[in-house]
Design goal:
Elements lengths: L1 H15 L5 H9 L12
Length: 42
């Protein structure tokens, strides 16, 4: 069981840090900054 979880963790880590995923994660990280609703501006 531990070995399966370790393999899943390493696979997830590789998936997250893959250069092919960088653009998608950068877009997701910028979503809160792209909010255009005036109601939330101070």
């Amino acid at each position: 069981m531990t070995a399966i979880l370790l393999v899943l963790f390493i696979g997830g880590w590789i998936w997250v840090w893959s250069p092919r995923r960088k653009a998608e994660f950068d877009d997701a990280a910028a979503l809160p900054l792209n909010e255009e609703d005036e109601e939330y501006k101070a």
